[in-house]
TrEMBL record:
Keywords tagged on the record: Oxidoreductase
Pfam families for this protein: Mannitol_dh, Mannitol_dh_C
InterPro entries: 6-PGluconate_DH-like_C_sf, 6PGD_dom2, Mannitol_DH, Mannitol_DH/Oxidoreductase, Mannitol_DH_C, Mannitol_DH_N, NAD(P)-bd_dom_sf
Official protein name in the record: Mannitol dehydrogenase
GO function terms (MF aspect): oxidoreductase activity, acting on the CH-OH group of donors, NAD or NADP as acceptor
Record flagged with keyword Oxidoreductase: yes
Domain Mannitol dehydrogenase N-terminal residue range list: 30-278
Keyword Oxidoreductase: yes
Length: 490
């Protein structure tokens, strides 16, 4: 029978399961992490756990946190098993399980975030990290700066002691730390967002400035916000993943599956100290930008290249998309001709080799990563992951037709039906508006490019706009497969 996961049962787990070899009762907190989703537990928490397995970083344990009401469900699940998580590594040919113990607490979820503010203000907390998704940083709709008009931000500016957002809570905690002489902490974004540290700084400092300009100046001068690049494919947890944990003999209410690959590249800019994550395989580098451009353009952009037509054609998984001959051929041609030429080489990896690496990772059949999950929130992902390659291609006089086809496929997807007539249920925070615009674009493709917060001036770039209109008209008239075939033949 499967063993219920807890501190008391660690020694009863099967011998094949790796588990903490350190004394968890002796761990001391050093990090508050906001957003305890699967990615954090398979990535940042794992790196820290691996340091602890070496007898290091015993005073850097993680205190989990959340700012949304649904986070209370996750907190209850993890608290019931002493904040332990089973990680199941899924390789193409084999799998393994490991229990990670680097998290030692989870702050209660409160509407005014009072407990979170109090904990972040304590002197033992030296890093406040976040995984709140790339769309969670209150960037203005044009993508140019801070969205001071967002209702959440307006609320936090007017109610600094009862903030609604993670960033408002960070500002409130820093206000207390300044008043008490505790000193600053490092704000560490761990989201798939280019220049994520700079954007986190922008959000925190801008919100602070709306409340107290002197506090904003203190934060800007004393706190640090390192940029980083994070990478590991981590599917959502459902019945299949729960069953996989049970197959290893572990009854875990919140297990995490992940691929057999991780990467973490970090700018070494920590105002209050840091763990030696490099001893667990992370890379400290002053070239984070080059690493993140390679990853965001080729991996995250590549995810959109295959998931959007895959959703229209009802291919349910990412590995299934890579098995689909037309979608795989689309990936190869777009990546090599329209994305990789605008990506710089990094130590030990050329863009062309990275395209091959990502193809192998996407093709891993053990990772049941749904096409729907990867295609989610296109209104944030396309501007961040795909359109920068379009802009660089236009500026360099290079091909952009395949990327225009991807955008046309997204417009077709947002119409809300697949080619077999089945419904695509809402899959974007702005789904209703996108669906209305997609229906309009069926007869007038340029209506889609008039979504200025996504496309900016690309609607005025004839080479891209004309190609987009051509592909969208073909997709509606002849189907997605015919459009892909025409592109591959071009």
């Amino acid at each position: 029978m499967a063993i219920k996961l807890s501190n008391a049962t660690l020694n009863r787990l099967p011998d094949s399961v790796e588990r903490p070899r350190y004394d968890r009762s002796a761990l001391r907190a050093g990090i508050v992490h906001i957003g305890l989703g699967n990615f954090h537990r398979a990535h940042q928490a794992w790196y820290l756990h691996r340091l602890m397995q070496q007898g290091l970083a015993q005073d850097w344990a993680i205190v989990g946190a959340g700012v949304r009401s649904y986070d209370a469900v996750q907190r209850a699940k993890l608290a019931a098993q002493d904040y332990l998580t089973t990680l199941i590594e899924l390789g193409p040919e084999s799998s393994s399980a490991e229990v990670v113990g680097s998290m030692i607490d989870y702050i209660p979820i409160e509407e005014d975030n009072g407990a979170l503010i109090a904990r972040m203000a304590e002197p033992d907390i030296r890093i406040v990290a976040l995984t709140v998704t790339e769309g969670g940083y209150y960037i203005d709709p044009a993508g140019k700066g801070f969205d001071a008009a967002h209702p959440d931000i307006v609320h936090d500016a007017a109610n600094p002691d009862r903030p609604r957002t993670a960033f408002g809570a960070m500002v409130a905690a820093l206000r207390l730390r300044r008043a008490r002489g505790t000193g600053p902490f490092t704000g560490q974004s761990c989201d798939n967002l280019q220049a994520n540290g700079r954007i986190l700084r922008q959000t925190v400092v801008s919100l602070a400035r709306m409340q107290d300009p002197d506090l904003a100046d203190w934060i800007e001068t004393n706190c640090s916000f390192p940029n980083s690049m994070v990478d590991c494919i981590v599917p959502a947890t459902g019945p299949k993943e729960l069953a996989q944990a049970l197959a290893f003999g572990i009854d875990d209410a919140a297990p995490v599956t992940h691929e057999n690959f991780r990467q973490w590249v970090i700018e070494d800019d920590f105002c209050a100290g840091r763990p030696d994550w490099d001893r667990a395989g992370a890379t400290f580098s002053d070239r984070v930008h080059d690493y993140e451009v390679m990853k965001i353009r080729i991996l995250n952009g590549g995810h959109q290249v295959i998931s959007v037509p895959g959703e229209v054609l009802r291919v349910e998984t990412i590995s299934g998309c890579m098995e689909h001959p037309k979608i795989r051929a689309l990936y190869d041609k777009v990546e090599r001709e329209e994305i990789a030429p605008h990506v710089a080489e990094v130590p030990g990896m050329t863009p062309e080799a990275y395209v091959d690496l990502i193809a192998r990772r996407f093709s891993n059949p053990a990772i049941v990563d749904t096409t729907r999950r990867v295609a989610f929130d296109g209104s944030s992902r396309h501007p961040g992951f795909v359109l920068p390659s379009v802009r660089e291609g236009l500026a360099a006089g290079k091909p952009v037709s395949g990327l225009a086809l991807v955008e046309a496929a997204w417009a077709r997807m947002c119409a809300g039906t697949r080619e077999d007539g089945s419904e695509i249920t809402p899959n974007d925070p702005f789904w209703e508006a996108l669906t209305l615009r997609a229906q309009e674009a069926k007869s007038d493709p340029r209506r889609w490019l008039e979504i200025r917060q996504t496309y900016g001036d690309l609607a005025d770039a004839p080479r891209f706009a004309d190609a987009f209109a051509h592909w969208l008209e073909m997709i509606w008239a002849e189907g997605m497969s015919a459009a892909i075939d025409a592109y591959l033949a071009s």
